[in-house]
Specification:
The complex is a heterodimer of chains A (99) and B (458). Chain A is built from 1 helix and 8 strands; from the N terminus they run E-E-E-H-E-E-E-E-E. Chain A is mostly beta strands and 99 residues long. The chains are: A mainly beta (99), B alpha/beta (458).
């Protein structure tokens, strides 16, 4: 499954300062869809190069990180249970406090 | 320029400059005192004769604008979708801007110019030279003086018909309710996590719409909270982020125009909310990525029924708000003063003056500068070796080699910008066998302060 993953608000620093990643995630045999929960663990294994605790806490993202699936807060699509489809765009953005 | 054939040596010039600057500082201070005395006298006069000021004297007929207002705001009035109605709404509205920094500067310029009836400014800070690249409401003449005074003076210069209210204090749970009660709309232009939770909660308690902006590095974020049944800050972020995820402009840097853009957008949203026009950015968030020139507007969750501030079951009360410890909740201070670590025993540290003396005496040593490479490029001490803290572990051999080139008893010193990372580095180095490593207390800032006043700080 092809996905576009984007990191912002400083999270890109965890994946070698690259903001946009065009990735192909291989599905388990007999599965046609991918959940956000599976994607998070894939991202942690394949993209996060340092300080994984700055990205995840337990099996979800750490507090202060917004997750957007096709420009929509994942709270509205079922959080970890959100089903992803081919060509979806998933954005991980850390909230900013500066001014 | 040759001024009358005068021939001065560099040291004479330095001496005279120093004495002139001292005299200038004394004069500036006196001017500031006198101005504030005068302002108090004028405020008293104004309150006695409020109706005699030109703006107020010309009381408009109900629902109408004065001739001056019509002329000043004519370009607003000519907009069919804005017009007299929205302009009148602005004139009858008040807005509180918390923070007169990178976001607050452009926001305040537009909010004063566009004709809000009353604009309040909260800040406890003073203007510094390294603010001016982004805090465009302040000028060089105000360096060292209150940001609120400076911002208020600029706002008054742009639009003397707006009532500008100065709150020269930090926004705290003890004064927040009293200050915010007097305003219709709140603009969060602060720079730290605890303030953001505190301001959002205060808006929930008092039922005020909140225009929230943030900027750091090359990115910005904007949304409107607690508006028309929409979410508050806590609905989105019920749990505060780890302190390590809260970067500050003073550490990570910020391109001046980025908070400028977000601050302007905050003014726009405040104008829409006050004017009752358009669709305020509630339930949506704008994300700006300046470097790639991309703006994305995303849909965010609605109000959470379980929210600890605005939830249906237990909305926060004034008393709960007053007693809430935001610094404890977020594990970070409300003021943005830099962290001061104290990790090392006394014998693992030396002062910058002691280092200076050892260096003068020619003591054999290696000086490691553990700042990131782009900091090192700004300025560094002579003969220092740059090994950023993040790569220290992989580059220990370089330290051994550098020590190997010196005599056997050579010392090992570590320096950074403010003296925190150098302590972390020494702690690590001592664990890795460099038992005599010492850090320079207070880093390059203390070097500039205690040893070489001409050494650049940033």
């Amino acid at each position: 499954m092809q996905l576009t993953l984007e990191f912002g608000g400083g999270l890109e620093l965890l994946c070698e300062s690259v903001k946009i990643h065009e990735v192909t995630v291989d599905l388990e045999a007999e599965e046609t869809k991918l959940t956000m929960k599976q994607l998070l663990s894939w991202v942690r294994t394949n993209l996060i190069k340092e300080r994984p605790e700055m990205f995840m806490k337990g099996d979800t993202v750490r507090p202060g990180v917004l997750v957007l699936v096709n420009d929509c807060d994942w709270e509205l699509s079922g959080q970890l249970e959100t089903m992803l489809e081919d060509k979806d765009v998933v954005v991980f953005i850390s909230t900013l406090h500066g001014g | 320029m040759d001024s009358g054939g005068e021939r001065l040596t560099a040291s004479e010039i330095h001496t005279e400059l120093a004495s002139l600057q001292t005299a200038k500082a004394a004069i500036d201070e006196r001017i500031s005192t006198l101005e504030s005395l005068l302002k108090n006298i004028t405020t008293e006069d104004e309150s006695e004769t409020a109706s005699s000021t030109p703006a107020a004297a010309e009381t408009p007929l109900t629902g109408q604008l004065t001739a001056d207002m019509i002329y000043r705001y004519s370009r607003h009035l000519l907009l069919p979708s804005f017009g007299v109605e929205a302009q009148s709404n602005l004139l009858n509205s008040s807005v509180l801007v918390i923070g007169a920094g990178g976001l607050g500067s452009p926001a305040l310029l537009y909010l004063a110019a566009c004709g809000f009836g009353r604009v309040g400014i909260v800040d406890h800070d003073v203007v510094e030279l390294n603010n001016l690249h982004r805090q465009i409401i302040h000028t060089e003449a105000y360096i060292g003086r209150s940001k609120v005074e400076s911002a208020a003076a600029t706002c008054r210069a742009i639009n003397s018909t707006v009532r500008i209210v100065e709150h020269k204090e930090a926004f705290r749970t003890s004064n927040a309710l009293d200050i915010m009660k007097k305003y219709d709309i709140v603009v969060d232009a602060t720079d730290n996590a605890p303030s953001r939770y505190m301001i959002s909660d205060c808006c929930v308690v008092l039922g005020k719409p909140l225009i929230s902006g943030a900027a750091l590095g090359l990115e910005g974020q904007l949304t409107v909270y607690n508006y028309n049944g929409g979410p508050c800050y806590r609905c989105l972020f019920p749990t505060p982020p780890p302190t390590t995820a809260c970067q500050r402009c003073a550490d990570s840097g910020v391109l001046g125009v980025v908070p400028g853009i977000i601050g302007c957008l905050q003014a726009l949203e405040a104008i829409k909310v006050a004017g009752a026009v358009g669709e305020p950015l509630s339930g949506r968030m704008l994300l700006l990525d300046a470097l790639s020139a991309r703006i994305r507007i995303v849909k965010i969750r609605g109000r959470s029924l379980q929210c600890e501030a605005c939830g249906e079951n237990a909305p926060m009360t004034e008393e709960q708000f007053r007693n809430f410890d935001y610094e404890k909740f977020t594990q970070s201070p409300l003021s943005t003063s830099p962290l001061k670590l104290d990790l090392l025993p006394e014998d693992a540290r030396i002062t910058s003056k002691e280092y200076y003396e050892k260096n003068i005496k020619g003591e054999a040593h290696v000086l490691i500068d553990v700042r990131p490479a782009h900091h090192y490029k700004i300025i560094s001490l002579p003969n220092s070796l740059n090994i950023p803290l993040s790569s220290l572990e992989q580059r220990l051999s370089e330290i051994s080699e550098a020590l190997g080139r010196k005599e056997e008893s050579a010392s090992l010193y570590v320096v950074c910008r403010r003296g925190n990372d150098s302590q972390r580095a020494v702690q690590y180095l001592r664990g890795a066998g460099f038992n005599l490593a010492k850090d320079i207390i207070g880093g390059l800032e203390s070097w500039a302060h205690d040893v070489d006043p001409k050494f650049p700080t940033y």
